[in-house]
Amino acid sequence: MTAQPHGITASRWCGGVAAVEFALVAPLLLTLLTGIGEIGIAAHQKMQVQAAVEAGALYAAKNGAGNLTAIGNAVVNGTGTYGISADPAPTSFYGCPKTSGDPGIVSQGTNSTTVCAGDSKLPGQYVTVNARITHTTLLPYLDLSLTTLSASATVRVK
């Protein structure tokens, strides 16, 4: 501890106050910065998973549903991000557009010959593409749970 300078009263002596304030505020600032970094990394990984699904859907739209393994490879290699998997694997099915309620597809499984109820046309062929990545935290020793980020897309191929 340093001695009080000559001529300054105790009420005006502020030596070391900045260090004490920094010691009080630094843990809060580090916690905030770590949280901001955590959210940023998770958002980036979510965008990469979505881009991987889009790459797989684009591959399916261009090449059809004949090779589901190649569609899965397009998902895994679509962004270059380590850890993305095509899980569950891409699936192909036949279906008809819904005629009422929420928009969507009424699946007919592998049945490609039964006409659709609303428009009497043959069902279309669809591919569902999925991707996921396991997000690990910046501070793994805090024992926070792992989070799986996932995305899915369905595209009509025929």
Structure description:
By secondary structure, the chain is α+β, with helices and mostly antiparallel strands. The chain has one domain (14-156). The protein contains two helices and four strands. It has helices spanning 17-63, 68-77, and strands at 91-97, 105-107, 124-135, 147-156. It has a four-stranded antiparallel sheet with strand order 2-1-3-4. Helix 1 (17-63) runs antiparallel to helix 2. The longest helix is centred in the first third of the chain and has 47 residues, at 17-63. The relative contact order is 0.16. The mean pLDDT is 82.
What count of domains describes the coordinates? 1
In DSSP terms (H or I, runs of 4 or more residues), the helix count works out at 2
Q: Give me the secondary-structure category.
A: alpha+beta
Tally of strands: 4
Q: Which bin fits the share of residues in helices?
A: 25-40%
Mean pLDDT value: 82
Quaternary state reads: single chain
Report the portion of residues in β strands. 15-25%
Distance between the termini: 81 Å
As laid out across the biggest beta sheet, the strand order is 2-1-3-4
Sheet bearing the most strands, described? 4 strands, antiparallel
Assign an overall shape.
elongated
Which series of helices and strands comes N to C? Answer: HHEEEE
Radius of gyration: 28 Å
Poorly predicted runs: none
